[in-house]
Amino acid sequence: MESNWAHVEMAPPDPIIGVTEAWRADPDPRKLNLGVGAYRTEEGKPLVLACVREAEAQLMADPNSNHEYLPIAGNAEFCRLARTLALGGDCPALQGGRVATVQALSGTGALRVGAEFLAAHLPSTAPRVVYLPSPTWGNHKTIFAKAGFQVREYRYFDAATRGLAFDGMCADLASAPRGAVLLLHACAHNPTGVDPSPQQWARILALAQEKALLPFFDSAYQGFASGDLDADAASLRLFVRSGLELVLAQSFAKNMGLYGERAGALSVVCKCKDTAGRVESQLKMVIRPMYSNPPMHGAAIAAKVLGDARLREMWRVELKGMAERIISMRRALYDALYERNVPGDWSFVLKQIGMFSYTGLSRVQCQKLVNKWHIHLTLDGRISMAGLSAQKAPYLADAIADVVANPQ
Ligand SMILES: Cc1ncc(COP(=O)(O)O)c(C=O)c1O
């Protein structure tokens, strides 16, 4: 009998995860993986933070620990600490008890549960339309489309300046239908590394208010962008303080290095405490048939680090160290390009923020970096600064100089 799946077609490889697979298979000793969205040490190795190791050791040593199920909404202490980290201890919405929070399967899971909740519970008069920056993290489109949203884009990256297309962004938001969902990267925009200035954030807030847009903040890099947890939450806090209702997806993958532990949280900021209680009950209704309840370990680690003054201070210092190494890689690459007189204005390498730099290199140039130079990256020209080292920066600059001089 023929297989029920004989007709199933091979799905295309994931554009980001495929880069690491290609890098692994590349036998050349000079190879470099600049596709990876994870922090690497100067030696190119994954990093387990000392505060995380210590929190883990404490958890292991606890004779009362067990493997019982968590509640549907997850670890309540973790949820409380996570949202306070994002919104700030003095946040009026937190003090008013009007934030509903559930633990989530890292940032992706928070986005998916949030999108499903909105699709089911936005007012019937609101359009099921989401506005995403162009470009954005590839998974955003699929997550919202799977939840039943019509996906539209707003202009974000200006290829000419390699900065923000602010006028285009404002024009697109001004023409959005009332009540549409507006996805915003809280900081360290992925893939471009371009963030609005404080003045521009204020204008975006005003537009969201005028058009009654529902902000959905994706915070995957708090503390990882500037090294300062509060500075990286400024955009989100500005919006919350304005009194708007909004949604927040948080990930501890990058800033605590808990990638595979899937530690994240979803918060919905509501107008009043009573609404927050009802919203939380409906978030649980989304989660229960999806995966019942979240995993324990990552959230327990994050709760220990956030809740213990000494571990939290260790984390702050280690997080700053990661952010600073990335910033120093920007300088190393910029200097190496400058020394080689590579044509063009490369100052964007210094100005862009967070893990990635969006180089503006063409697909053909990127393919050449992969095939000739064994430098693996996504073909949209995004490079992970976290994958670079001081030792490898000159090699990357040689390669970029070559593909800029010979673009075909
Ligand atoms: C902008 C953005 N949002 C969300 C995520 C989700 O990451 P995770 O599900 O690993 O927390 C990422 C990861 O790269 C990201 O860059």
UniProtKB/TrEMBL annotation:
Domain of life: Eukaryota
SUPFAM superfamilies in the record: PLP-dependent transferases (SSF53383)
GO biological process: amino acid metabolic process
Catalytic activity: L-aspartate + 2-oxoglutarate = oxaloacetate + L-glutamate
Keywords: Aminotransferase, Pyridoxal phosphate, Transferase
UniProt xrefs under InterPro entries: Aminotransferase_I/II_large, Asp_trans, NHTrfase_class1_PyrdxlP-BS, PyrdxlP-dep_Trfase, PyrdxlP-dep_Trfase_major, PyrdxlP-dep_Trfase_small
Swiss-Prot/TrEMBL cofactor(s): pyridoxal 5'-phosphate
CC annotations in GO: mitochondrion
Classification via Pfam families: Aminotran_1_2
EC number: 2.6.1.1
Domain Aminotransferase class I/classII large: 30-400
One example GO MF annotation: pyridoxal phosphate binding
Subunit structure: Homodimer.
Family of this protein: Belongs to the class-I pyridoxal-phosphate-dependent aminotransferase family.
Miscellaneous comment: In eukaryotes there are cytoplasmic, mitochondrial and chloroplastic isozymes.
Protein's UniProt name: Aspartate aminotransferase
